[in-house]
Write a structure and sequence with these properties.
By secondary structure, this protein is an alpha+beta fold.
């Protein structure tokens, strides 16, 4: 880490006007908090084979079919539409000189980086038959420097062949898989699988020495820490400039310009960026990010070489906000905040875990807000970062949750820990994320009630999360059997409002619940965990089945409604019970949409509301 220096109150230069304004992008850029102006989208039609390890790919792709990337082969949107098992799949695509030029190649950006948003589960990548690299982890991004492989003249006609092998054993329960079923047909609460490439593949040209990673951390409501990681061989003497600019309607206000000297050998270092304006505290409040006022601050990060020459510039944004707990209260910017959340599976009938379009990610956030929620619990999925961008921009609090594994073993622990750490690193800068959830309902730690090793593992996941990010609360095991949670969360599918109200009525009810055996016949605290008066949230409830278009044979919910009026009355009664509680500070309704056989969504699977959306909103909000 370098020493911090050179904090300046006024701007010393004008931001690079060729860069997009990061807080007002269109949602197409795959890495929304670190933008460069040029990149090549490699999504679209690729060649595809799913017949295992055939070495014939090196001489072509005989017998291949077309697939539309980034949609998984199990899905209709991919053009393959084969929902069975795909333990090994192969992809191939030609990279042309036009693709490379679109990435922004040239003297100013001599390196080419190939990015994958997510490939489930283990990926191996070749260009022109030469191994480029491998990656394990189905929900997290990875990149390779492919400069040498794509050197002009390396192949005849400057055409290159990109090949990706994806291995995704559907029966390997040590893989973090979330709601993806290991049975051939979806059953109970699990869904059809998402194999292979399911987020954007893209190519980017970068300078020889470039900004590789950014992370914004709210230290308090006046200062943010920017962590910067560089890649490339440096000559020494470089400096980093950070300029923060706030746009408010027609006003543009420069909040700060900071320059920091980079140590000769440092590749990762911190810069403190002051953002509190000097007028008074009231003016400072205008900057805060909340669901009602989702204000974002644009920034440019410029790497300066010896003599002040610009080496690299990226556009980014951040939100000024703090989250925390104070006794039984959940705090946003130091004020008590009621968290009114909905369980979001992030699953579409025709494209599975992959969003059907970039616009669909924005519409998902808009629908959640229109239904009356101020938060979403992204369930058992590390969501596309462009969803988080729209949550940042439109004002939606998000619970960041990992996809769980279903086996307790050293291999399962290693895999989930590594992927979860990568996810926290990827998403920590998003102001919308307010809580981290590394385990759900004891999945992967089924004997946690009595097994000390499983208790230690769940506790270590929570502690590692706090070490990576001490600025957000952590839930050690969402739903029950908590070993080390900053928030006590309960899952309760009681279907009668009056009975639900009694369980969460007052302090006596709280003591009986937290200190004993809760819903689903599970203890709330295990492994020596103590009730310290933490906030309590009902993070799964409802789940009322209603199928207005005609019942499907396997459709179900935790309770069922006879018609639309009965359905709305049931939702209202359950929310009335939550609103009547003296201690609940948050809730999460199950669920946003019907998802395959789970027909307990507020919306149909196609995202149309089951009754007029105003009726649902009134039931959820009480007004």
């Amino acid at each position: 880490m370098s020493m911090l220096d050179g904090i300046v109150a006024a701007p010393t230069s004008t931001p690079d006007r060729t860069l997009p304004r990061a807080s007002r992008q269109d949602g197409s850029y795959p890495r929304p908090q670190m933008l460069r102006p040029d990149w090549a989208d490699l999504d679209g039609t690729w060649s595809f084979r799913n017949d295992g390890d055939d070495p014939a790919w090196r001489s072509g792709f005989p017998g291949a079919r077309d697939i539309v990337v980034p949609f998984p082969p199990e899905s209709v949107a991919s053009g393959i539409d084969e929902p069975g098992f795909h333990p090994v799949v192969w992809y191939s695509r030609t990279l042309s000189r036009a693709d490379i030029d679109a990435a922004g190649s040239g003297p100013a950006a001599p390196r080419l980086v190939l990015h994958f948003g997510a490939v489930d589960y283990r990926a191996t990548v070749w260009i022109d038959g030469v191994l480029i690299g491998t990656h394990e982890g189905g929900h997290t991004p990875f990149s390779f420097d492919v400069t040498q492989a794509l050197t002009p003249g390396a192949t005849e006609g400057d055409l290159h062949t990109l090949v990706v092998r994806a291995e995704d054993d559907p029966h390997d329960l040590t893989q973090p898989r979330g709601k993806q079923d290991w049975h051939e047909d979806a059953h109970a609460i699990w869904y059809r699988r998402t194999t292979g490439i399911w987020q954007t593949v893209w190519l980017e040209a970068v300078p020889a020495v470039a900004v590789e990673y950014l992370r914004w951390t709210n230290l308090d409501q006046a200062t943010l820490r920017l962590t910067v990681r560089l890649h490339g061989v440096r000559t020494g003497g470089e400096r980093l400039r950070v300029e923060a600019v706030w746009h408010d309607d027609d006003r543009v206000e420069h909040l700060a310009t900071v320059e920091s000297t980079i140590g000769d050998t440092a590749t990762e270092f911190d810069v403190l960026v002051p953002v509190a304006r000097q007028a008074n505290g009231q003016a400072q409040d205008e900057l805060f990010w909340t669901p009602d006022t989702p204000r974002l601050v644009d920034a440019t990060v410029t790497l300066l070489g010896p003599g002040g020459a610009v080496v690299d510039t990226v556009a980014t944004y951040f939100g000024v906000r703090t989250v925390g707990i104070d006794g039984p209260r959940f705090l946003l910017n130091g004020h008590a905040q009621d968290v009114r959340s909905v369980l979001n599976q992030g699953y579409w009938p025709d494209s599975h875990l992959a969003a059907p379009s970039r616009q669909a990610l924005r519409r998902e956030v808009e629908l959640i807000k229109e239904l009356g929620f101020n938060a979403a619990r992204n369930h058992q999925k590390i969501e596309d970062p462009r969803f988080l961008y729209w949550a940042d921009r439109l004002g939606l609090m998000v619970w960041g949750e990992t996809a769980g594994a279903y086996e307790f073993s050293p291999r399962a622990m290693h895999r989930l820990m590594r992927e979860w750490m990568d996810a926290v690193e990827r998403d920590a800068s998003h102001p919308s994320i307010i809580t981290w959830v590394p385990v759900n309902e004891s999945w992967g730690v089924q004997e946690i009630r009595t097994n000390a090793a499983q208790q230690a593992y769940a506790r270590s996941l929570a502690d590692v999360t706090r070490a990576l990010d001490p600025t957000r609360p952590v839930v050690s095991n969402d739903g029950w059997e908590h070993v080390s949670s900053d928030i006590i969360t309960i899952h309760d599918y009681e279907g009668v409002g009056e009975r639900l109200a009694r369980t969460y009525a007052d302090d006596a009810a709280r003591s009986a619940l937290v200190g004993g055996i809760g819903p689903a016949d599970r203890r709330v605290l295990v492994g020596g965990a103590q009730d310290h008066g933490q906030p309590v949230m009902l993070t799964e409830f409802g789940g009322v089945d209603y199928q207005p278009g005609g019942r499907r044979e396997d459709g179900w919910g935790y309770t069922s409604a006879t018609d639309g009026d009965d359905w709305v009355e049931r939702i209202t009664a359950l929310y009335d019970a939550v609103r009547a509680s003296s201690f609940l500070v948050g809730s999460c309704w199950t669920q946003l949409t019907d998802t395959m056989q789970e027909t307990n969504g507020l919306l149909n699977a196609d995202r149309t509301p089951k009754v007029p959306i105003e009726q649902i909103r009134r039931a959820v909000t009480g007004h």
